């Protein structure tokens, strides 16, 4: 994806990582669905994904923030909104794909995952959104060994 | 001549630049050997080498000189004449000018210079000449790394060994050294260079000497290295680490006071650097330098140093930890921070060096007065703004250090600050004389000033206690700080008490509570009976604390804090045995606690009483004894109450007290080597009491009391000496013989008739208690009437009294064997005892015996092993016999006796149905039985017997109870049992017996050390997996299942195990997937997932076929109801989707 002409965003701004919030003590004896702070858990799953271009995590680049994750547990629905670092970023689809793969591996099947670019943060926003939420195109992308390698590479430094 | 030609060949091969290094080393050794044996003189060698040393060919000359030099290094221990040395050093000295062949000259000079004085050394004139030549010819920095190192070594050697000889060189030398070390980069060379500077400083201490004038130049070179920062790999071949370099540079900095004008400003500048390591280093350097440079030179920097110090402490000191457990007798406790630690040690050093100046600048500091003003504004600790709180902590720490460092600094601090603090607290200085009790309303209390008081007082306390000589305590009477404290202690203690009162009313989790308790604790732990803190204050504090203990038990935080404080005070006071304060502690605290025990007020929870009791007892031996006495009285008073009148509350009290005694107090007594006397007395008296009570009435049905008594008795007997044990056993035996229905005389007659006795509750009590004594004694202790006791135990174990079986096992374990010690013939030996156990006839009445056994004499007399095999129709007797036999087997297993084999065969026989001939021993009886006789509950009992055999038991047969334990007994048992099990499992026909065989084997596997399992992993894996699937069926086996799964995960993570696992990957993964949703135990699911993660690292080709299956299974577990499992599942799914 990265062509010979160099990086898309050669000099991104790096933000400080937030301290991991300690797991809130369970109020009742054990964590039931109603009580778990699921959006934080979710964030923990995706915050360490590496940027495809830079050796920083998505959180450090503020591609993902705490408010970016919305969860509706009763309806098994998750929506992740991410903000590409620059408007014309061609990495946006890759980042979205990484997010989707990671969530696919970390969430039970019953969840419907919706991934989109933050409104106004990308030049071709509708196209990217459409591409990311099209099952067939995602499946096709995951058939492509180059793309899968790239995604796996981005997911490696994460834990959890 | 032959030798000479040989020598020439050696030289040739060394000089030849194409020969390998190992060959060169060999020839060097050969020549050295010749010289050492005196077959070759040095003169002859030099003569022979002549041309090689002087030829114009640079390479050959260099090699030749190096050979000579290396040779001299080799023969460093061989005495040489002074003429030889002189001519050699002369030669090498001249060669220093020869830059093309320098290495040899350097090595040669070094070899000669380093010679010990008893083997001939270089004269000082020669050394001086070498130094001159060195300074004249060598351009150190233009050489390679190794040569530079040699040069610096030579320089170092000259300065260290020949300092007198080189001293006259003066300016030349200093200049030469500057030149030699300028812009050096290599760590190893730098270490040497720093050391050279240090030696140089020692050489010219004179203020008008050459070093003084060159100090600026020299420091310019050195200063550029600070702070040391290097990026060498941490490990690897670099021997020099950053810390070594930093230390060497620090010594060089501190080596001479001439550096002072340059060093201190540099360091002060670097203290404010943003690099943390630079900060720490500068503070460290400052500490050393100021101690080395002397007070006069440092005085002019004192102000600047103070400011940067204060700054560092203010910035880096974290929140104090409000916990009374840590650092009980010091001031506030803080998280360790390197910068703060260094800053504080610098402060302490400077106060010690020149207290007046620095202390006055502390006292007059703006920040200090600001803090003093601000504490007047806030009433509670928590309302301080963050910034001011930080200042408060920092100033507190500084005051603490100032107070504890020296008497004079402490005086100054107290003189200037005490009254001001008192004023903010609301006790004006002038009212000392006319102080009335109620003139300070608690509303005016300022917690900030109390905080500062804690730091100040603990500083003073440390100052007084550190020097424990009584002389200083006299001196302290005249010190202002102490007199001030003395006159104000009443007000202070009152203020701290108010703090408790105020804070306890409001917020339960308040640092104010800590401040109050800590302050009182510090006041109470001043040494000296009446000075500086008077005794009545000490007593008031104790009274206050005790009132909280007895009344405020609902305020948990306060109560715990006070208890801890009392414990600290107790252990501090206990050191001064007979002082008045120790006496008052005993009467105000220890006695009060003991008095609490019998009180039947339902207000204070008993568990809290016990906590206070045991904590207080552990403060010292005397306190413990008093508390034990109280405990004994209460126990005995409640014991008779508890079971004569069936008072369940008293019984519960006794149970709690005995629990506390055996779990908390006994271990303490054991560790602190004291009062075995009490333990012994208590055990004997307990027997008396039990005997007395038994006279009147049978005990109630309640088992708890018996259990507690037995546990106490075992632990007490186990910790006594053999003599005391003998007495206790005698006592127990006499009670046993006089208080049971058993007529011990009759027991000697055979056959035994268990059914004759109806074991009453009372009998069970006494036999169990007696059994617990027997369980815990040492092997040397003598047990009376062993034979009768054996009979007694056999009868009772058949009636289901487990402690009797355990005692029997312990006896078997400890008896002396025939073969070991033939002398003791009067005593019962192991062989005789085994004979009794296995061959004594037991009379079973005809009704319960199988009719088919009619072939036996009378048809009703059988032995224990027959009972196990089900001769009798009474299943309960069979189960009792099996479990009894398993304890006996455990005794045998621990000591490694071969009879164990027979015992395990009996168990196996019970497990097998329909198959014959596993053991010859029981073949006869086998014919008498058939499948119908096998009851699943009996078989399960036999399977669980293996658990008893191999697992560690807390109740008996362990080190606490003096068992004989053979090393590696588990390993031995495993390797003897494994082939048998493998064989019978494959042969077994019926599914029931197969599943129970699995069960028995699972017990063995899960308790065997991992290392043995690993070596047999190949054979074990299939059985292990079968066991897992078998155990997963029954919810009751979940713990066993988990233990077994742990064994599997152990195999998976071990390297040897991996290979075996690879072969069986398919079935293992299959099994693990099934365990992933095991509903009854979270740990099982978690471990199964972890095992799967480990499996994903196996060779790709083996596991790829299972990938889809695993991923599909994991996707279900992702929705598990436990969080840990979900997280583990995510990890697992990641590992497998990458695989």
What would you say about this model in short?
The complex is a heterodimer of chains A (160) and B (1139). By secondary structure, chain A is an alpha+beta fold. Chain A has five helices and three strands.
What does this structure look like?
- The complex is a heterodimer of chains A (160) and B (1139).
- Chain A has 160 residues and is α+β, with helices and mostly antiparallel strands.
- Chain A has one domain (33-154): 2-Layer Sandwich (GMP Synthetase, Chain A, domain 3).
- Helix content of chain A is 32%, strand content 10%.
- Chain A has 5 helices and 3 strands.
- Chain A has helices at 38-46, 92-106, 125-132, 135-143, 145-155; strands at 69-72, 77-82, 112-117.
- In chain A, strands 1-2-3 form a 3-stranded mixed sheet.
- In chain A, α2 (92-106) crosses α5.
- In chain A, 32% of the residues are buried.
- Residues 1-5 and 21-36 of chain A have low confidence and may be disordered.
- In chain B, 69% of the residues lie in helices and 0% in strands.
- Chain B has 55 helices and 2 strands.
- Chain B starts with a helix and ends with a helix.
- In chain B, strands 1-2 form a two-stranded antiparallel sheet.
- Among the domains of chain B are: 1-114; 754-979, no CATH class.
- Chain B is globular and about 115 Å long.
- Chain B is mostly helical and 1139 residues long.
- Chain A binds chain B through residues 30-33, 36, 41, 45, 105-110, 152, 155, 158-160, and chain B through 1115-1116, 1118-1119, 1121-1123, 1127, 1130-1131, 1133-1134, 1137-1138.
